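User: Predict the structure for this protein chain, please.
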Amino acid sequence: MADITILNLNMLYVRYYDSVERERHLPLGPLYVTAALERAGHRVDFRDYQQHDAAELFTATEIVRFLADAAPVVGFSCMANLLPFTLLAMKATKQRYPDKTLILAGVGPKAVEQPILERFPWVDIIARGESETSAPLLMDALKHGGDLHRVPGISFRDDDGNVVHTPRPARLQQLDAISPPSWRHVDLSRYTGFGVITSRGCPFPCTFCSVAPVWDHEPYHRSVESVVEEMRFLKEQGGAKLVLFQDEYFLTGRSRVLAFCDALQREGLDMMWKAFGRINLSDADMMKRMAETGCVEIRFGVESGSDRVLELCRKGFTAEQVVPVVAEATKIFRRTDLFYVWGFPFETMDDFYQSVFQMISFRMMGARILPSMLCLLPQTQIYKDNIDPTLLEFAPDLLPEYMITGHEVSRFAHIEIRDEHAQVFAFIRQHPDLFPGFFHMDLAGNIRPKLRVLQEFGFYPASDEDLLEMESCGAHSPRVNEGAREIATRGEEPG
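Assistant: Here is the predicted structure, written as structure tokens:
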């Protein structure tokens, strides 16, 4: 019998009125932790809920059924969008299996560990940060009755009911020394998105970013040789034609990117790839070299066309600096994605119109424009500096794109909450301080007027006819244009 069951609940699942958009991406984070546990001698039962099929996936009852015969310790890994559902699923699991130890992990509970443990007694332990070090030590303590106070990077309740947060272990700096993901637990042929992580952490202080704070704004990188070797593995063992570099700091600078391109060329690895770039670290020669070695798509976080907003967000570049980089990128790459954030609490309508003008201009150049409502996650600096949780507003027809859960019926900006899932959103509304990403600041004065403008200019659908023409957010899509058609990561026609 396994020592621990790890359940991956990181999913891309969007429910529309007449269809479902579902992409199955390699669950890299949980597979890295699985490898570390196995390296330490623990037996892991890994279960990926992405691969589960049921008439209705998003019920706590279905999670309990999926966890039949689970190990004595069960770890739930989720992101912020599925944190409410995960907590409800953990409650149902504890009711069905009261003797099991339930661990909450992933980036979902970041910055709200204390209130979660105070309010929800069915959550036994929360794992924080990189778990390759702490997970084996935690399993040792749980198996042998050790002192949890000695396990780094966890939060739990002591015998008196007080919440304890142990110090986090030192960041892992030598990423090549970490065991690779435990691939034996997954069938690569069943995944449509092949991701690769080349680094952990980003040094930039963008105030709206929810990812960099997870890594304390401190980046470490894998060697280019190890990255190329993993790409080769995914191609030979999984049939991958395209990989997505999912880390936000792949493009760290000219020298490292060119070294990667040189290694890729030396190995003769004929694969397509796509990555995030950064405006003030990109130049035409470097981007041309990327395209020569298989990069078919670059994604820039522009965020705003207003210098005032860029400065308040601490982006580190100006609106004027964006123009020549994007102009070159649209000539070089098959696709250039530009991400914009709108709905900042300090964004005036004048700021917003500057963004809209820039978005229209870049769309005319051929870039794909992907605007997103500001997502108010508690670990972000913008939330800490600007948000009063008592003033948050919930709109039953409107969610930020990155907080789509799979329960609602989506029409991009507009959603519909059906009766069978109403209890999930009732739970969210009861705890705005835990789930602020589902809420808004100043719906009437800030969000809805800007949404109407974006609809007017075709960035969001205003009707069912417009909906048919819209593209979903390309941040993690495993497809890319090739001529007049789209190809998936295996080079197949989408079905």
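The two ends are 38 Å apart (CA to CA).
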